[in-house]
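Might I ask for a little of your time on a matter of protein folding? The record follows directly beneath this note:
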Amino acid sequence: MQANKSAAKGLSIGIIMDGNGRWAKKRGLPRTAGHKKGAEVFRDIIRYCNELEIASVTFYAFSTENWARPEAEVRAILALFGEYLNMAYDYQKENNRVVFLGDRSPLPGKFQAQMADIEEKTQNNTGTILNVAVNYGGRQEIVYAARRLARQVRQGALAPEDIDEALFGQNLYTAGQKDLDFVLRPSGEMRLSNFMLWQASYAEFISMDVLWPDFTRKDLDRAIDEFNHRSRRFGGL
């Protein structure tokens, strides 16, 4: 049964797409097969987020630490990302605003140009914001914001005492977006893995015992239902 749209509408969700390699290993397949299947699930879940009128969803596609994986696997992941970029223009028709989070400089120049073009073409869309975290790390993002603010101070445009949490947030990759309501991690793991450390400071954490390539719309319904039964006190009583 589809989640109650009123219970999902306006939520900001972070998803750590975990378990692709284990899914493939269980089936005697190469890890790349798991990533390919996971990419198909990604495309279906963003469509479902649109239907539920979720405010924003952030997918952890490739972390700053993932470069340490075997070279062949990294090449396969980047090739899938290239395929995604070619299809991402479809999100214009679906009214998604697409934002890429992370350091783009190590990525192929063709990818960087496409990412900038997609962001520009979708920037005025009013549907679900689709954040794709590529070569992303939560600590990296905080350093990125600190450096932006430091440059403004050095230029005399800003005094150190002017820096507060709101201003810091405006200098993150997610400037202008609301903080996460919950972080969802399939595969049963119980860690953030350097994902959106600032934005997840008061997010609920939901771990599900399902590998990402097996993840379905019903699983997202269950996660939303669990979130809506949590008591969020934000440090109060």
Notes: The domain at 5-228 is CATH 3.40.1180.10 (Undecaprenyl pyrophosphate synthetase).
